[in-house]
Structure formats: C-alpha cells, structure tokens
Amino acid sequence: MPIWFVVEGTTVYLGTLNAKRDWVRNLEKTPEVTLDVAGIRLRGDASTVRDATADAHIRDLLARKYWMAWIGSWFGKGPERTFRVDGVRVEST
C-alpha cells in the first residue's frame, strides 16, 4: 500500500493522515516494517514520533515532498501521526 515517506540522510520517516489504518495498528503491535521504494526493499523498526520538535520537522519534510501535504499545511492540516524507522537495512530481492 502507498505510504507517505521521506528520507533524510540515513533516516526514513513515515506519515499517515489516518492513524486508524490497519498498517498503523499493526505497527503498534509489531514495529518491524518492510518498505519497497522504487524496487529497493528496506527493513527497519518503526516507532511513533512523540517529540513535538521532531514531529514538526517531519511534517515540514513531508510538506516539501508532497503537494497535498503542502496545501494541507496552509490549513493547519497534516499527518495524524508520524513515524521514524530505525535500523534501516537493504534486503536482497
């Protein structure tokens, strides 16, 4: 399923407009994620970003990448929840 993401350095961040989605609930139970980005499979452990400064930074990064997030930011709208993926490693496909 498509998920908004952004990469900064070696860190991957995720965002969702709806924290009630199945994948979000699944992450709460099992934080291991597999992401397929342009045919490259990445694995890591995702966690909800709880720090307000870090969350604002991720929202800004997402708004720069996705035009819908940029427009939403004008109206005070944005991701309902953001995540940081740690221990990212490339997996052979």
Q: Can you walk me through this structure?
A:
- The protein has one domain: Pnp Oxidase, Chain A (Roll), CATH 2.30.110.10.
- A hairpin with a 2-residue loop joins strand 1 (4-8) and strand 2.
- By secondary structure, the chain is an alpha+beta fold.
- The chain is built from three helices and five strands; from the N terminus they run ββαββααβ.
- It has a five-stranded antiparallel sheet.
- It has helices at 22-29, 52-65, 67-74, and strands at 4-8, 11-16, 32-37, 40-48, 81-91.
CATH topology label:
Pnp Oxidase, Chain A
Query: How would a crystallographer describe the biggest sheet?
Result: 5 strands, antiparallel
CATH architecture group name = Roll
Order of helices and strands: EEHEEHHE
Give the total of domains.
1
Number of helices: 3
Number of strands: 5
Arrangement of strands in the largest sheet? 1-2-5-4-3
- What portion of residues is helical? 25-40%
CATH class: Mainly Beta
Q: Give the integer mean of the pLDDT values.
A: 87
Rg on CA atoms, Å: 13 Å
